[in-house]
Amino acid sequence: MRKTFRYLFLLSLLLPLRCQAELYFYPALSASTMGTAYASAVAGTEDITQQFYNPAVTCYFYDHQFGVSPSFLMPKDDFTEGVGTTFRGTVLTESPELKDFAPTIGGGGIYGSIEMKKWLRLGIAITTPWRRRENFAHDWIGRYYGTRLEIMSTNITPSLAFSIRDVLCVAFGGQIDYFNLKYEEAIDFGSLGEQLAINGASAGNQDGFLNVNAADWDYGWVVGLILKPCYYIRLGVSYRSEVVHKFSFLPKFHLGNMGEQVSENNGLYKPICDGEMTIHCPHMIMAGIHYYHDCQCEFSAGLCWKAWSRGPGIRIQYSNINQPDTVLVQDGWRDTFNISIGGRYSSPCRNWYLRMGGMYEQNPVPTEVQTPIFYGEENATIAAGWGWNFCEYAYIDISWSHIFSKNPLIRQFVTTAGNENRGDISGKIRTMSNTACFSFIAVF
């Protein structure tokens, strides 16, 4: 048994050690699931906090249950080796390096399961699947590509799950999704003023700012099933539909003296200009297998596909047809896979558990379209967790994970469509992160 678990640990360490979270998807929604690096998510072998990954899991947990799973993502992202210019070629020298521009953020989920009949369960999952926060100095050299980003989402998934003779469980439900995005970037009114031959204009020294606060509700659906062909094996498959958020909002342009002159001259950056933006939260297909090796040692493996290529990049379009689009992320995203393996060791009396796992993820955004605000890399996660059934009707789980990092390279140029008024920026981002998650489950 010890030898088997040692092999599992070594295998998790052999995964490619590169990372950044997959474009700000926040998977730390369940401590028990995170302990196996999400390998056990879809087969439903842990507890009701796995509902986001597969709503059919509620069939395997008796009576009425309530769960809460708060978590904290603690990134450490530094921008280094920065070189930048205005779109007219003036070299920017302020703040070429920034440390810890991505602060700690919280998330997690609240879960419930009601046993309506022995074969029928009503489930609810309230989660935060998309989370990110970044803050840059207003004078840093990449300010024309962004100075602030905040993403917050809340997903509500009610579901019904049916069990058939303890062999097959099928569930379906809906998604109610709230998405809020706050974004800020600098506007180089100094260079625009020079271009328009306005007296006193100075490139890179007379910035204004664009502020966006956009929110939207949208809807989708989910379906999942779990098959238990024999005592030792459990198979799970689930699907979450795409959710398309279409934002309408009033962007705020903070012009300053030079910005007002530029706006008066070219008719752009008007405060009455409406904005629109679309963000696609991708289709997700997840599959998993769980194997009971013996009464104390269990193994899981999981696979997830996300259809990022179905949606374009992210850009703000304005009601003023002469106002150029503000491009947050260029088109050209690609679909991704992640794969995970994990295991659980149960104590002889089965009142406490140890979990361990590893996961590898692809990056949906090609290097050539990454910016200092929206960036990523292939990533590998190792995770460990501990669970304790301290009484018959309540138990807790604690998990930790670490993402190892390759440094994303940022290369954006004024010649790229959407960067005409931004200039060039290049640099390297040193990135790593830790996640801590806690779960509490009560049975009624």
SSE order? HHEEEEEEEHEEEEHEEEEEEEEEEE
Give the strand order of the largest sheet, numbering strands 1, 2, ... along the chain. 1-3-4-6-7-8-9-13-14-17-18-19-20-22
CATH architecture: Beta Barrel
The outline comes out as: elongated
Cα separation of the termini: 34 Å
Number of discrete domains: 1
**CATH fold topology:** Porin
Mean pLDDT: 89
List the helices and strands and how they pair.
Layout (H helix, E strand, L loop, with lengths): L1 H12 L17 H5 L29 E21 L5 E2 L12 E13 L2 E8 L3 E5 L12 E17 L3 E21 H7 L11 E24 L2 E8 L2 E7 L2 E3 L1 H11 L8 E7 L2 E9 L4 E10 L7 E5 L7 E4 L6 E11 L5 E10 L17 E13 L2 E11 L4 E4 L12 E19 L1
Description:
The protein has 444 residues and is mainly β. It has a single domain (2-443), classed as Outer membrane protein transport protein (OMPP1/FadL/TodX) (Porin, Beta Barrel). Helices cover 8% and strands 52% of the residues. The protein contains 4 helices and 22 strands. The chain has a 14-stranded antiparallel barrel with strand order 1-3-4-6-7-8-9-13-14-17-18-19-20-22. Strands 10-12-15-16 form a 4-stranded antiparallel sheet, with no helix packed on it. Strand 6 (148-164) and strand 7 (168-188) form a beta hairpin. It is elongated, with a radius of gyration of 24 Å. The model is unreliable at 1-22 (pLDDT under 50).
Question: Quick recap of the structure?
Answer:
This protein is mainly β and 444 residues long.
